[in-house]
Amino acid sequence: MILARATSLRPAPLHGKSRGVRLLSLAGLVVALAALCMLSVAIGTREVAWSDIAAALNGQVDSVGQAAVAVRIPRTVLAVLAGAALGLAGAIMQGVTRNPLADPGILGVNMGASLAVVVGIVWFGIASAHAYIFTAIVGAGLAAAFVYVIGSLGRGGATPLKLALAGAATSVAFSSLVIAVVLPRSDIAGGIRSWQVGGVGGATFDGILNGLPFLAAGFVISLLSARKLNSLALGDDLAAGLGENVAAARAVSSFGAILLCGATTAICGPIGFVGLVVPHLCRLLVGVDHRWLLPFSALGGACLLVAADVVGRIVARPSEIDVGIVTAFVGAPVFIWMIRRQRVHDL
């Protein structure tokens, strides 16, 4: 009886999207990402000729233009990886919590990673890239657990509204603690404040390689969690009736998202709203099946962050606007719209 009911309640694709339409949409996202990467390499604060771009892509740095392009290449790679990680982590968190407002920034996970890194630098003197990443992952995990426990208190358990409120309050508290920890250290305050804005400027392949094993592990764990998230979407009782270990499914999926958030925050700083906006847009394309939603969210997040980085270079020439500010301008209105379109008791 339970199995029959569970089978009938399996999420159906939105708008009856066929496999062919989904594959076509996926190919379109790949093409869009490739085009955005080319724009990211070609556009910057300095105008560069196409000949210099071609030469720089072949490893030449004989002119100022070629050197400028050579700097943009690792920046573009980092934007792709960070955007994919945040988009995928947002989709995972929404699936684990069944919360349409879940996002690494809104749930306080990014700020937990930031606080851990700042405390590690100021109080314990950590200096290596791997130490930053380990510390950020631990901080992200503790913050996620803290928000979930606080949001679970009281009647009704961990409702979407309670989780969003607990996450927002935690983010504000952690942000204040970061300021309090950094304030006495004027020698490093400027660098930490710049890192806290969130950006991909100054990226190097060495820095990317330091975080790549953690990101790769996070991507693999998260993508392999798709079937578990489909089961969790049916509700805990039905998922258990289907033979799913609900606690283990949540723990494994969350661990993948925490790896992605922690590593990305350690390298780029806290970047918000990517994990909120992208999964919602991707659901319009592919529905609620996580086997499709997760790869689409990764590609969509990469597209959004690369596009935001390009916009940040254009609108403030000859200066730049960090990508974290651009995503906030895009994500904040979407967040407000999502709140307004649903009645409070439905959240």
From TrEMBL:
Protein name: Iron complex transport system permease protein
Keyword terms, alphabetized: Cell membrane, Membrane, Transmembrane, Transmembrane helix, Transport
UniProt xrefs under InterPro entries: ABC_BtuC-like, ABC_transptr_permease_BtuC
Localization in the cell: Cell membrane
GO molecular function: transmembrane transporter activity
Any GO BP: siderophore-iron import into cell
Gene3D superfamilies found in the cross-reference section: ABC transporter involved in vitamin B12 uptake, BtuC
Organism of this sequence: Pseudochelatococcus contaminans
Transmembrane regions: 21-43, 73-93, 105-126, 132-151, 163-183, 203-224, 257-280, 292-311, 323-340
UniProt keyword annotation of Transmembrane present: yes
Topology in the lipid bilayer: Multi-pass membrane protein
Main subcellular location: membrane
GO cellular component, one term: plasma membrane
Family: Belongs to the binding-protein-dependent transport system permease family. FecCD subfamily.
